[in-house]
Amino acid sequence: MAELKANLDFKQGSKTRFRQAERAVKAVKDMIFEGKFKPGEPLSEVLLGEVLGMSRTPVREAINRLASEGLLKIIPGRGAIIAELTIEDFKEINDLRLVLEPLAAETSIKYLPNDEIERQKNIWKTFLEGLRRGENISPVVLSKADMDLHSSILDYCQNKRLKNFLKVLRSQIYQYLLVCWKFQEFSEDTISQHLDIIYCLEARNIEDLKNALRAHIMFNSRYILCNEAD
């Protein structure tokens, strides 16, 4: 009986640590995606634990997971820092996206609910109308909506490994998105491209959807590479 209780206590403790680690992962991702941490900035395990009200064990688990996803880099003797994405990294990631995102969309198009497509359409139409009225929309808001749209498509991908791999890739390019959404010309073109993608989803047109995704990813690559050259 004592052994059984010990096993149950251990399992309960493991579940609690896992939930805390998940919460820490989400909190750090949110802070990175909101630009609160800059590339190359150190991330203190102790301070993070204090901010989140957690022990170091789940915080350490979260840091290791974020490092495996490429959002953090662990340097021996220094600890974790926010990963810095090079232009070469970006090119490699977008080359993969160009092939894999249309493939993922092909498996998800039949399963994406109508109400989710409608929700996305309303979001991006509102952005476009606001931009045309001269509204100043936060790059953080636009970047998060960008991630949300692509994640919605991936959520219904029927290939689990492909879905998880692409979500990691998209997280890694977030720092570039945050910069790009500050520019008016990027915002106008990308919002229109997102609406094109949404209209293809609405029509359940696989070939048009794949073409719209490829055009969108290639535009992203050209825009960033041209601005890096400048």
UniProtKB/TrEMBL annotation:
The keyword DNA-binding applies. Residues 18-85 form the HTH gntR-type domain. Keywords: DNA-binding, Transcription, Transcription regulation. It comes from the Bacteria. InterPro entries: GntR_C, TF_FadR/GntR_C, Tscrpt_reg_HTH_GntR, WH-like_DNA-bd_sf, WH_DNA-bd_sf. One of its GO terms (molecular function) is DNA-binding transcription factor activity. The keyword DNA-binding applies. Gene3D superfamilies: GntR ligand-binding domain-like (1.20.120.530), Winged helix-like DNA-binding domain superfamily/Winged helix DNA-binding domain (1.10.10.10). It holds the Pfam family GntR. Coiled coil: none annotated. PANTHER family: GLUCONATE OPERON TRANSCRIPTIONAL REPRESSOR, TRANSCRIPTIONAL REGULATOR, GNTR FAMILY. This is Transcriptional regulator. It comes from Acetomicrobium mobile (strain ATCC BAA-54 / DSM 13181 / JCM 12221 / NGA) (Anaerobaculum mobile).
